[in-house]
Write a structure and sequence with these properties.
The protein is an alpha/beta fold. It is about 40% helix and about 15% strand. Helix 7 runs parallel beside helix 8 and helix 9 packs across helix 10. InterPro entries: IolE/XylAMocC-like (IPR050312), TAT_signal (IPR006311), Xyl_isomerase-like_sf (IPR036237), Xyl_isomerase-like_TIM-brl (IPR013022).
């Protein structure tokens, strides 16, 4: 007979937590509410509504891509979607439409027929697909082939009922103003195509997008600016992209990495200036441009280049209770749990982390 807490203890070992710490993490912010007065506890509402608790399928990519003939653990889109719905998730975000060839439907579901199959599985499990990290043309101007492929992306999104289509990358990896100008032209054009289909175009952002734009000062040998006016790259993009056409998905983990990494810039006069990035203030200033979040947690580790190590949601040091409590458009945003390192040697690990993270999302009160 197995020990009644064996499952919890195994999960705790992977997280580096003892059972008491794991229980505290699992109950999350709700544990604090238990010590509050009954009236105060009763007044603390759920910060992430049940219908908006989501997960990007990249977190469980090992399960989706696994051969279902090799294991009893849920594998392939159909079984993984069933497992996520059983956990309690109501939303998913795709990270492409590929799975193992032995899974029901075959390897490639990025077709009209494949999208209809996926839609049926979503509907069967009461799931709403909100977005996909898919194709965004890299070239400019857009070629006929690029436009045709993007229109196919939008068509598939419509079949799936997606509210949003986008990418897992920043609009450009460049530090230079001229390249962000070009990116805005491209994204505005793509946004027009998406809007015509009733879908929002979005870009997912990493810490580099919150670094400072090189837009002033002496030029280098290639004629490029070497100093900054102090505006961050994505802040500049907010201003030159059309708010009706271009939307954003803040990866909250990477936003806090940016707070750790991107604190100083060299001003036009050569002086070094300090400006600490505030992820929450960035969203508050333009809340309706952030329909999506990646709710990714991290434990503080200043010894690493990023300043944080990824962990399941609710077990790290990012203050998600404050972040969601202070949003001015509460209930508008769609937070998708993500953990890049959720897959592990245990084939069930990523789905176990998905369960733990869901419980912690549900426990947030404020």
């Amino acid at each position: 007979m197995s020990h009644p807490h064996a499952h919890e203890e195994a999960l705790g070992r992977r997280l580096g937590l003892n059972r008491r710490q794991l229980l505290a993490a699992t109950t999350g912010i709700a544990a604090a509410a238990a010590f509050a007065s009954p009236a105060r506890a009763a007044s603390r509402g759920t910060l992430i509504p049940r219908g908006r608790r989501g997960i990007i399928l990249y977190t469980v990519r090992d399960a989706i891509s696994r051969d279902p003939l090799s294991t009893n653990v849920p594998s392939g889109f159909r079984r993984v979607l069933e497992a996520l719905a059983d956990i309690g998730y109501k939303q998913v975000e795709f990270a492409g439409y590929g799975q193992h060839a032995n899974a029901e439907g075959g390897a490639d579901l990025e077709t009209v027929e494949g999208a209809r199959l996926l839609r049926r599985w979503l509907d069967d499990n009461g799931l709403q697909a909100e977005g996909n990290h898919g194709f965004i043309p890299g070239s400019w101007p857009l070629s006929t082939a690029d436009l045709d492929r993007f229109k196919r992306v939008v068509e598939i999104a419509g079949i799936l009922g997606l509210g949003h289509v986008g990418t897992g990358n920043d609009p450009t990896g460049s530090a230079y103003k001229a390249d962000w100008d070009v990116a805005a032209e491209k994204w505005n054009q793509l946004g027009e195509i998406a809007r015509a289909a009733g879908i929002k175009l979005y870009t997912h952002n990493h810490d580099a997008a919150y670094a400072f734009l090189l837009d002033s000062g002496p030029l280098d040998a290639q004629g490029r600016p070497t100093r900054s006016s102090g505006i961050r790259k994505l802040e500049y993009f907010f201003g030159i992209s059309d708010p009706a056409l271009v939307h954003f998905e803040m990866d909250i983990f990477w936003a806090y990495v940016a707070q750790f990494k991107h604190k100083t810039y060299t001003a036009p006069d050569g002086s070094v200036q300090t400006d600490v990035f505030d992820p929450l203030a960035t969203v508050q200033a333009r809340a309706k441009r952030f329909p999506l979040f990646h709710a990714k947690d991290g434990t503080s580790n200043p010894a690493t280049g990023n300043g944080y190590d990824m962990v399941p949601f609710g077990t790290g040091d990012i203050d998600y209770q404050r972040f969601f409590a202070e949003l001015r458009s509460r209930g508008f945003h769609n937070p998708m749990y993500e953990q890049d390192n959720a897959p592990g040697a245990d084939p069930a690990q990523s789905l176990e982390y998905a369960g733990l993270s869901y419980r912690n999302m549900a426990a947030l009160r404020g």
